Amino acid sequence: MFSRFVYLLAFLASAVFVQAQDDAWHLDYIYILANEEIDPIVSPNQQSTHMHKIIGGSRMAAFYNSDYYSAASCSSLRQQADKSNYWMPNLYVIDSDSNKYVPVPALVRFYYFLSRNSQYQNVSPFPKGLRILTGNPMNKSPTNVAVFTCQINQDFSGSLLGNSFNFNRDCPWGMKTELFFPPCWDGVNLYKTDGSHMTWPDNGVRSGSCPWSHPIRLPAIQLEYTWSTSNYNPGQALAGKLAWANGDTTGYGVHGDFVEGWDQDLLRRALNANGTCVGVYHSMQMGECPVLAPTMNDAAAKACKPERGELQEPFGNLDNVPIPRLPGCNPTWGTGDKPGCNPAIAGLDISGMTGQDGAYVASAADTQLFKLPTTPGWHNIACLKEITALTGGVSYTDASMTVESCQASCLSAGYQYAGTGQVGAWNCVCGNAIRPSASYFPGMCSTPCPGNSAQQCGGNYIFNIWYAANGTTQNSTTLADGTQYVGCYNNPGTTSQGLIGASTYNFQSGSMTTETCIAACHNLKTNWALTTSAKWCYCGNEWRFGTGSLVPSSYCTVGCTGNSTQKCGDYYRSSVYNITDASIEKSSVYHPPGWQGCYQDLSGRLALTNNYWTGTITPQTCINGCSELGYSYAGVETGKTCYCGNSPQITQRLPVSQCSTPCSGNSTAVCGGTNAMDLYTTAGANTTVASVKASKPAGYLGCFQDSGSNIAFQNYYSYTVNPMSVEICKQTCMELGYSYAGVENGNQCRCGNNVPTTTQYVSGMYCNKVCSGNSSETCGAGGLLEAYALDNSTMAPIMPGQSAADYITCYENSNRGLTGYTYYDNGMTIEKCRTTCSEFGYGLASVYLSKYCGCGNSWAGATQKYPASSCQYYKCGGNSTEYCGGQTQAAVYNTSEVTVTINKPDGWVSCWTDAGNARTLQDYSYTANPLSAKACRVACANQGYQYAGTEAGNQCFCGNKIANGAKAPTSSCNVKCAGNNNETCGASGYMDLYNATGAVASNGIRGYLGCFTDDSTFNGNSYVSDWMSVDSCNQWCYARGSAYAGIRNGNQCKCSSVAPTLVTTSASCNNPCTGNSTQNCGTATTIATYELANTGIKSADFVVTSNSTGYVGCFREGSTRMLPSYYFSSSSMTNDLCISNCKALGYAFAGSEYASQCYCAAKLDPTSGGYRVAESGCSQQCAGKVGICGSGNILSVYSTLNATTTVATVEGLKGCYSQGTFGQTPALSYSGGYMTASLCRRTCRSAGFSIAGTTNGNTCVCGNSATYGAAAAPASCNAPCQGNTTETCGATFSSAWSIYDTTGAGSNTPAGFPANYVGCVNDGNPRVLPNYSITNGGMSSDACRKICVAAGYNNYGTEAGTQCYCGTSKPAVALLPDSQCTSKCPGAPTEACGAGGKMSLYAIAGASSPNTTASVSVSASASATGSVSGSVSRSASASASASASASSVSVSRSASSSSAAASSSASSSRAASSSAAAASSSSSVSKAASSSVAAAPASSSSSRPASSSSSASSSKASIPGGGAIATDGTVSVTSTAPITSAVTAPATSSVTVPSSSSSSKASSAAPASSSTTSTAAASSSTSKAPASSAVTATSTTVIRSSSTTSSSAAIPTGTALGCWTGGNTVFSSATMTGHDNLTPSMCQIWCNANYYTYSGLSGGNTCGCSNTLDGLTSAPASSCSTKCSGDANQSCGGTINNTYSVFRAQAATRPQNAKRFDSGSASIRRDRKGERRVVHSQNKKNVNEQSMKRRGKGVFAHW
């Protein structure tokens, strides 16, 4: 572990991070001085509370004295000039298992980080005697003074950071604790128990500037202890397993100590060695500093020991030694209070460690405390960061800042500190002190002042600080009256925080001057005055500058309102004056008794708004006038206005100087001022309300202003007359119905209904003009009115006649006041005029000039009213007892009591005069019989006219204006209408005038325009139908884009873009519609017309309904088809056929026409021009003899919505489709009279296509892209398949496709065929399967499959009964009907083996391709009696399968299990009825695995050594040879472990498996002692087994040609075994007789395919197979000289079934140009060493071989 930390040290030394502008020294070679319980800082001259790990000077003791410590003889630090001491608490591993604590050793190093306050000030050395603590042993939360690192890897990659030592894993390369010490010293104190003598800089633990309170920058110590926490219990997670020496288990209580012991001079020189030791801006080892290098001594550090020894613990002080408890009283604890010890822990003897403790305050020589200057004047004392560096003051911005301007502003405001700097803009900040935490930035205040570039004003967020010592003064400005100008004051944003908030008085004045404000404040005896915002003055005593500041005087720029040459501050600043020494005279202006003072009046008039007047006034006349009016207060303002009221609202009191305007009634007196009011009480008035009222006539109200905007009576009546008196005026006003009367200017009378407001009320002394009709009375004055109330006066009626009660008044009528309707009548009476006006709807009637009557609703003439006597000049022409007006006056009456009853149709306006040469309505007219008022109104409204008029009974007039005529009495219009005897239609010379707007015809159907007589105006399409309705016509015309539709004569529909105009009565259009008798469809002379925009029709589509059968109706075709989307015809057409096909195509409507035609569409095409006709129009019987199918050009239309389709559902059929391009360049297509849909689908599926299409009854096309055309009616695909008429194969003449999928059941091979069967196909030249072929008289599909599979082909086929073909790729060929492959298989008579030129094609689905490199699945099947001792997997009645690894082959038995075949990169094997799993274990090989095994009797046992080791791997094997058969081919086998397995049998046959062969046991290995029944058929000679043995075992194995076999007869090695003679039963298995193309290779392949070991040829054309050579005797080669029927160059035995050419059975190999099973790599080929592959089959003795021949049974029978 120590070596790890040597590397750690070297790494850390090079991994220092130092921030920009930082220097740093690090000391990496440090030795532990002591582990002991002393702490001279916290526990001087006492035992410490816990254990510490200490480094540094040798004089470490329980006390601290700098002189003593610095004289130490050595230091455990390599830097021997540093006798300082540093320590951390010891760390312990908690061993919970042993309840022990293990002290942890540590590698220690430290840094001195030398960051500066600024680049202009070096770091200071530690002051002599300094003590520093960091951290808190009692802390229980994360702290920023420490960092923990779990170092996981040697290169420190993946290290973890934490805030404590509780990492949830181990730290193999140490747990590092980094502890930071504060570097900023206060300059005085060497130690304070709260640590306040030290603090941190402003940018973390070591960077940035120190605060003003601690400006001395010392080296920032970073103490690093890397703890070897994995020394004890390596791999243990640290969480919960560590504790500091004080028992803290949270890790947060980490802390550290430092006491100074440096060679002060040396450290100072090093800290000032710029360019070598500092100022290099990177970290360095202390030894790299030339000043410090001479004192570096590793040997001295390593040898250094404490001079007073080490304070020993009872159980020792060594690291890594478990101890029973933590030293001292330190039980472990996490949170909460620290527990105590019971019993108490005995203390240690500390006597040898005590001594004289050093000073806690620096000596005078070492003190670096800053002291403020005492000499009066400004002193530059510091450069600090941030505007907040000064406290208790204010700041302001100044773009022209200078040092002097800022100093002056601050001193004027009473501040001793001033600072200049930038915060965006230049700022001057004033204050009372420096904020202790302000960052000290020496030398950085170098930016020139904007107002004086020779001065330095700080910088960006940097402030140059100045101090004014006590006694500092500055120049000031003093005015002539002794006032001292203080300066321009920057008002604070919150006024209460500054001088304005401290003011005791303020006012504003439009004539403000500096003198005015000073005088006002001086009169109030305040200490200061200020002016601001041009017109405001504030006075106060407290000099509360608050957050405001004094700025240069140039900032106060706004001129005073009273003297623009003076500055009254500005809108955010104030001009401030000290008036304590001012000498100002007081004002001596005279005011009458009751004066309250001068008050500011900006707008409210001091609430004296009850009454006021303007004129010639003095204070006394205003007082008397307000008293007369009953008010308690009077106020004068602007020299000419008097205000009265009872509750003055006292505002700001102003100086007397502000109320100095001379009075308009006496220029020697003052009457207020501008915005200033002199306020008085009325207690000294000479007049009262009662005294004035007693001198006036009854009802007197007072004297009121009556001019300009001050009108006494609103809506008053006035007239002038001489003579005038109060009584005359009062009488007139009562007659005219007024409540009040007033006299004015001696001869004017005014009447009104309101009491004049009190604000117009003035003193009666001003109403002093004598009445022209009574000299004893006054009648107001000019602009002044004396008002009287009339409530106690009465009057007699003033107008005679029966309508006297309805008389209103007498008006001046020179310009006719009622002109709504006027007429004259020589017999005029008041009643007649009133009745006429009431009839015309007017509320007023006027009579004048004896015979004239005027009507209206309001008087519009002159507003001058007169007494009733003025309207009694003329007698009425019809009644001499009544008066009808005066010379120019009209008597006006109310008509409300007159009742007139008029009964006219809607819209009637009036009876109107009309003349032939000057028509009233001139735009349009017509004559109609019949005619009604409504018909005329509708006709006019339809054409957009506003007015309609009926005249002379049958005439209709229209117009937008009344051009001529006049309103006439209703009785003048008395002729009955020609169409309605209950209505009048005007008269000769008179018309009934109507408002036509909104008149509409109505018959209950939307859009009805009316009944018209001019149908010839219709200019669009039309049709006549015996099935007509309003709805169908409207819809038809809407579809044609017409605006109007009209129906006439019950059956004709006409469309138009223009409307007819000649409206008659709706009753004239009374013929019922032929299609809807409830609707009227015009007559021969009238047309019922509809405006389509108002019918509610939103779509041109036909609105159709259908009955329960879906029938919609009978429709005649238009110029285009009504159902245009799809069409087909059929000679057996029925409506059901049409409907079902349209529905199948997704159409909503179907229509049959002309007996055999069918049309489809989503809707009836409204633009076609077709229309509905009577049902009789659809009269032609359907071609299918069921139902009616329209007629010529007439459709029977049906909805397909609820129709049930008769189209049968056919499995796989996607539909009928038009041609498209599907058949143009097909990937596969063919035709034949045998075609069926199923056959086509099978063909396409076999060839790998997803779409099968048939057409013309006999054609099949395959493809993957749906390039056929659009969907067609199912009936269009009318061609029955020629091979199966129950199926559909498109359309005749290939006009449509029947499209099928190839995924359904119908696309599969039918049941009853052998496995893998594809179908019957044509074969010729070239061959469908061209890669390999064989002919055999015992051919079957199974035999062919075995031959091809053995040769590595997955596709095979039989042909002409005896032929077998193999192929690499599955052919994409057309399938014929299976019945065309008629040749029976000789080896399986129930199967077909193709025919002449036709092949029964097979393909093994999912088998590996020749290129596949996969795991080998090897299996074996055992069903025998006997026992073999070995390790052989056994699974009864189960299936076991697995994949062999690339390095091993495993052979297993599984009784009665299923089989599978596979190939792999190892040796390839075929197994019987099971698949074997690869395994690597100690095992022997199951039968026939790379060895020859003798046949054993059932009672014998064959054993293999249980200890045989076969952790073997087998390399991939290729099919040997390059031709059809390889006689000496090799199989490459690589063994990773020797196999020494022997199998013995009682028949004296023994087999030895070569050590180089490989094998692995099955997936479930049996114990070595397990017994299994086995008989093996091997590649060497095999002794004959008893007939009682029952064996079924097959295996693919590799046998070396060098393997040896001992038997009764020696069998030659190799493939050709020679010539042999014997009985005819030896080669009687799987025989091929009379073969006309026999060769040895063919026989070998045949026997191998049937799982036999040996093949024997005899008679030149006979082949037989066997698993034994028992009973044979070797014969000379000449005995086997019969030429082979297939190759005359080779011999195929001798006498048939007696003399045999014997060969080992061999699997076929693929031709040279075919891909092999292996990769063909040269390395594999080089590894072949004469090995060959043999396929074994059953023992013939216990197998029904004849049955196998017939049925092709064998291990592959169920593939």
Automatic annotation (TrEMBL):
UniProt keywords, alphabetically: Signal
Region (Disordered): 1494-1521, 1544-1596, 1711-1759
Designated name of the protein: WSC domain-containing protein
Domain of life of the source: Eukaryota
Keyword Signal: yes
Matches recorded under InterPro entries: DUF1996, WSC_carb-bd
Low complexity bias (residue ranges): 1494-1518
Coiled-coil region list: none
Compositionally biased residues, Polar residues: 1736-1746
